[in-house]
């Protein structure tokens, strides 16, 4: 077959799904291609929940983008007719000068984000489930919370399809090539042509852009859902916010207990190096025991029996910031989603940016931080 579209989107995780939604709302004829099944668990977008926070320790430059993402997630929830966000509050623990606390405080103060800075005694009085070393403090962001991740991706795909997108699953892309000012994409099922190509392939982006030599590293990340000990509800959403903490052993994230999900817990700042093809999906008892130990240090009793574990992929840039840019030789090709493990919350806004670039050639969002040129590749979009 040979069909022509306005835009082809390759990769239908959260970034590609958001892009398809935004493009179809603008009346564009869109083809989305995904190598795996709908809602698959092979990449970075699957799971019940993801954190969304505005007091962004990584850089204050992210705050306007996450605020726009909040707005768009709310718009999607209204369109889909289902809740996609749970306000739990967010808590960031560490030494006062730690990257996590100092960076979150800088973003909160720079952008006027509601927050409180609490010492260890105040934290344990406010949240009895916590045990906090006396030398630590916590920045509390009351308006942060959790996105229902699988529901978000499903809503984006459903709404894109309702607006007219053609979404094809189990159809890997073999290759793409420029076709004059447009592009041609080849899969096992046929060839497709379009004016623009958007690549949002996560850990597979390096294969599709091999000629650019993107300096990406793939990490295997493990999360475990634990059933808390006891039934007094102290770990439940409503009594406990999500908690990030940084100490000498690393940066960890603990989600409050949700019905049927327990407490989700994992390490954020490092992972086992791998490739998208060779990632180890099995989980060892030693890995689970280590996470249980780390969780129970700060939330004693939260790490009970294992409900389930899941692995996902972080596609890391050297500076841990995103890449959103055009191909330096083919400006009709736009690429994104090496999001370094903190991109899900932004997907609704990144989809808007990618749709802007594909339809208008520019965007009103400030994406200078995400230019590939900082890594010695191409030119800024």
What would your notes on this structure say?
The strands form three sheets. Strands 5, 6, 7, 13, 14, 15, 16, 17 and 18 form a nine-stranded mixed beta sheet that branches. Strands 1, 2, 9, 10, 11, 12, 19 and 20 form an eight-stranded mixed beta sheet that branches. Strands 3-8-4 form a three-stranded antiparallel beta sheet. The model has no long low-confidence stretch (mean pLDDT 97). It is α+β, with helices and mostly antiparallel strands and 381 residues long. α1 runs parallel beside α5 and α2 packs across α5 (149-162). The protein contains eight helices and 20 strands. The chain is 25% helix and 30% strand.
């Amino acid at each position: 077959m040979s069909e022509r579209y306005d835009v082809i989107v390759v990769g239908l995780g959260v970034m590609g799904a958001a892009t398809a939604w935004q493009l179809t709302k603008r009346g564009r004829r869109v083809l989305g291609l995904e190598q795996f099944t709908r809602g698959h668990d092979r990449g970075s977008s699957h799971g019940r929940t993801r954190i969304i926070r505005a007091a962004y320790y990584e850089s204050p430059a992210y705050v306007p983008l996450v605020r726009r993402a909040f707005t768009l997630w709310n718009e999607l929830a209204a369109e889909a007719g289902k809740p996609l966000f749970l306000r739990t509050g967010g808590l960031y623990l560490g030494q006062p000068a730690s990257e996590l606390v100092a960076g979150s405080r800088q973003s909160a103060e720079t952008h006027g984000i509601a927050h409180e800075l609490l010492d260890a005694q105040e934290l344990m009085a406010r949240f009895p489930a916590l045990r906090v070393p006396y030398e630590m403090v916590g920045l509390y962001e009351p308006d942060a919370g959790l996105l229902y991740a699988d529901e978000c991706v499903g809503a984006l795909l459903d709404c894109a399809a309702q607006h007219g997108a053609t979404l094809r699953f189990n159809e890997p892309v073999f290759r793409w090539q420029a076709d004059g000012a447009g592009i041609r994409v080849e899969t096992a099922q046929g060839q497709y042509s379009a004016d623009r190509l958007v690549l949002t392939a996560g850990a597979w982006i390096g294969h599709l852009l091999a000629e650019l030599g993107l300096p990406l590293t793939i990490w295997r990340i493990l999360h475990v859902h634990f059933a808390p000990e006891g039934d007094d509800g102290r770990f439940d959403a409503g009594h406990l916010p999500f908690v990030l903490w940084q100490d000498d052993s690393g940066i960890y994230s603990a989600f409050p207990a949700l019905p049927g999900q327990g407490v989700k817990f994992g390490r954020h700042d490092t992972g086992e190096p791998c490739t998208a093809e060779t990632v180890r999906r099995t989980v060892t008892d030693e890995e689970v025991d280590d996470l249980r130990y780390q969780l129970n240090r700060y939330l004693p009793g939260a790490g009970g029996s294992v409900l389930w574990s899941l692995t996902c992929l972080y596609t890391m840039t050297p500076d841990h910031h995103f890449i959103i840019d055009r191909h330096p030789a083919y400006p009709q090709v736009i690429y994104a989603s090496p999001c370094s493990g903190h991109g899900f919350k932004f997907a609704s806004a990144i989809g808007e940016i990618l749709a802007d670039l594909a339809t208008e050639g520019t965007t009103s969002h400030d994406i200078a931080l995400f230019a590939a040129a900082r890594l010695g590749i191409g030119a800024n979009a």
